[in-house]
Design brief:
The structure holds two protein chains of two kinds. Chain A has ten helices and no strands. Helices cover 74% and strands 0% of the residues of chain A. Chain A is mostly helical. The longest helix of chain A is centred in the N-terminal third of the chain and has 35 residues. Chain B has two domains: 130 residues, D-Maltodextrin-Binding Protein, domain 2, CATH 3.40.190.10; 109 residues, Periplasmic binding protein-like II (D-Maltodextrin-Binding Protein, domain 2). Chain B is built from twelve helices and ten strands. In chain B, strands 1, 2, 3, 4, 5, 6, 7, 8, 9 and 10 form a ten-stranded mixed sheet that branches. In chain B, strand 5, helix 7 and strand 6 form a beta-alpha-beta unit. Classes of the chains: A mainly alpha, B alpha/beta. The interface between A and B is medium-sized, with 21 and 23 residues.
């Protein structure tokens, strides 16, 4: 049981971690583009990203599964019921979250800051970098939101992964299965492990995030 | 128009409060609304997925006046729900576990309802050559050939039946060829189809899915593959809050001649054969 638990935890962290990283690599530039770019279809794309933030994982799972089934258009890749399929599904869940949160974050940066940077002689890329640095609080929020949602979703990984023991079983699907089998103690233990992981990771990300906070603490005065 | 009540802030606040109130009332009102006439039936996913209960339960609700909540879970969880008094009546198919449940005093009445049978399915090419074998001989061949085999791996009635076959064969299945999926029957059929693997399935689910998948029925008819369903009422002496009266009425209903006849006819129109053979009327 102990090695099995380690296997499950290891797979959970690597699948969700990989999905979050890929979603960041694609989602941050998309968020910046949506926040600063002016191009036709931008409004539509932004609305799609915001809708995508509430995308139900089972729907993502169903669509990705249908694509990857042997009878599906991408069937010859042979990815169904593999960790790679789980990463693909979770990237689709996390990507709108990263893009949406970082878009909102960059839009909230004081519009004077890029102007000042320009006035001080910054190049286009340097101005962009300044903006992204100013928005780092929201960027970290985007990481937390994305990782938190993919590590805790069950619908997509169950459908595209199949919950195969020793191959594609992760914490959430294991919890579901233990519950179905009536083994509530094991299910609760696994739930506890999952919560500990999300808490620990969010704890460090929050510390990192709050380090950058310069606002004076709020004091109530009557 | 400036002081029209309909446009005043007070009215708008009132409206918002009313909507929120109605909404919360709707949510919590329904959630906490308990009446004596509810009956919780815990059953297995395979029974539920067959659609039989969609036919039988409305009939029972009409004749008895009870509102039935059907909870579809694995046999393990269904029995556990009965043990904890979370269900009033169970419809399950794991005889050994059921007998233990009765022996421990958690059940009051247990009656046979019907049976169907299990079949061994596999890829059309049958790489392990199990066609024509009996159940135990077939799985011995699968193990010897190390052909991929999908196990439910979820403590369900089907899984328990599979484990009893391995035990009868004297084999402890282990290795990359033995894949434990931990999902429902339909999902496991899909996984076996995708992975060109063998598996044990109940005939009802197989009939419902066979057009979708390339799997072939290879072994059937072995007495070891019979799958009997029993109805069990949860013992009100252990859990005084259960609906014992309703549970007993459900047992009488499902074992009555007209309902047993309905069970025999169920599925014949769609699949050309009965999904379940009634058992309650046999002497």
């Amino acid at each position: 049981m102990k090695t099995e638990l380690l296997e499950i935890v290891g797979l959970t962290l690597s699948v969700s971690g990989m999905a979050t990283l890929i979603a960041l690599a694609l989602g941050l530039p998309l968020g910046v583009l949506l926040a600063l770019g002016r191009f036709p279809g931008r409004g539509l794309l932004a609305a799609m990203v915001n809708t995508g933030m509430g995308l139900p994982p089972v729907v993502v799972g169903l669509v990705v599964a249908m694509l990857l089934w042997r009878s599906g258009p991408l069937g010859q890749w042979g990815l169904i019921y593999t960790p790679a399929a789980m990463v693909i599904a979770q990237v689709i869940i996390a990507l709108p979250m990263v893009a949406g949160v970082s878009m909102a974050g960059i839009q909230q940066v004081d519009p004077m800051i890029p102007l000042q940077a320009r006035a001080l002689g910054a190049s286009g890329w340097q101005t962009l970098w300044t903006l992204v640095k100013e928005a780092r609080l929201s960027m970290l929020a985007a990481v937390m939101a994305a990782f938190g949602s993919v590590i805790s979703e069950v619908g997509a990984v169950l459908m595209v992964g199949g919950n195969l023991k020793g191959q594609t079983r992760v914490l959430t699907t294991a919890i579901l299965q233990e519950t179905r089998m009536g083994r509530f103690e094991t299910a609760l233990t696994l739930a506890y492990v999952l919560l500990m992981f999300t808490f620990t990771i969010n704890f460090f990300l929050t510390r990192l995030q709050q380090k950058g906070v310069r606002a004076a603490p709020l004091r109530w005065r009557r | 128009m400036a002081h029209c009540f309909l446009w005043s802030k007070n009215f708008r606040n009132l409206l918002v409060a009313a909507v929120v109130g109605l909404y919360l009332g709707g949510i919590f009102g329904c959630g906490s609304h308990t009446d004596q006439a509810a009956l919780i039936l815990a059953t297995t996913t395979s029974t539920y997925d067959s659609g039989l209960l969609d036919v039988l339960v409305p009939k029972f609700e009409k004749s008895s006046g009870y509102r039935v909540k059907v909870i579809a879970v694995g046999t393990g969880e269904a029995l556990r729900m009965g043990q904890q008094g979370d269900a009033d009546v169970l419809l399950v198919h794991a005889p050994e576990a059921e007998e233990r449940f009765m022996a421990e005093g958690f059940g009051k009445t247990r009656k046979p309802v019907m049976h169907n049978d299990f079949v061994l399915l596999g890829p059309p090419t049958d790489p392990a050559g199990i066609k024509g074998e009996d159940a135990v001989g077939a799985i011995k061949k699968i193990a010897a050939a190390q052909s991929p085999f999908i196990s439910r791996g979820d403590n369900s009635g089907t899984h328990k039946k599979e484990l009893s076959l391995w035990a009868a064969a004297g084999i402890k299945p282990k290795g990359t060829w033995y894949i434990e999926a931990g999902q429902g029957m339909g999902e496991c059929l899909r996984i076996a189809h995708e992975k060109n693997a063998y598996l044990l399935a109940d005939r009802g689910t197989w009939l419902a899915f066979r057009k979708q998948f390339s799997l072939k029925l290879l072994v059937e008819g072995d007495p070891k593959l019979l799958n009997p369903y029993h109805v069990i009422t949860v013992n009100p002496e252990v859990h005084p809050h259960v609906n014992g009266q309703g549970a007993e009425e459900f047992v009488q209903f499902i074992t009555s001649p007209p309902i047993q006849q309905m069970i025999r006819q169920f599925g014949q129109a769609e699949y050309g054969e009965s999904l379940f053979i009634p058992d309650a009327l046999q002497p």
